[in-house]
Each structure stands twice: as C-alpha cells, then as structure tokens.
Automatic annotation (TrEMBL):
It comes from Streptomyces echinatus. This is Uncharacterized protein. It comes from the Bacteria.
Length: 70
C-alpha cells in the first residue's frame, strides 16, 4: 500500500474544460477555501480529490454558480 501523502486533499480548478492547476492541501477546510477563491477568480469548476485507501478519490466537483458572490 502506498503511504498517505502529507497533503491528502487536492483541488483541480478548470476553465472551459482546461485544467488550470493542481494544488494540494493539508485539510478539507483549506481545500474548500481554495475552491471558493478559484471559482471567484474565473474558474468555472473545481474538482476536489481526497487520498484514501491508498489512492486519490473524487470527493466533490463544485461549479462556480454554486458559490455566492463575496
């Protein structure tokens, strides 16, 4: 089994189907802070991945229209 990474949360923002980045985080809260910031900055979706049971799992996909304006 592969060891758990130090940052077991990953955010992958996309715009028009193009991946903009892949950013790792230490907690769910920090990952979702990044989701909100990315979607308010022009990304149209953000996929959240979580490391569990030795691999990355799709946790949630958030769309820009789901985030209220700041």
């Amino acid at each position: 089994m592969t060891a758990k990474p130090r940052k077991p949360w990953r955010v992958i923002p996309t715009q028009n189907g193009v991946q903009l980045a892949e950013v790792e985080h230490t907690s769910e809260a920090k990952a979702f802070e990044h989701v909100r910031a990315a979607l308010r900055s022009g990304a149209d979706t953000a996929k959240v991945m979580q490391w569990s049971d030795g691999r990355w799992w799709h946790f949630e996909t958030v769309h820009a229209e789901e985030i209220p304006d700041a």
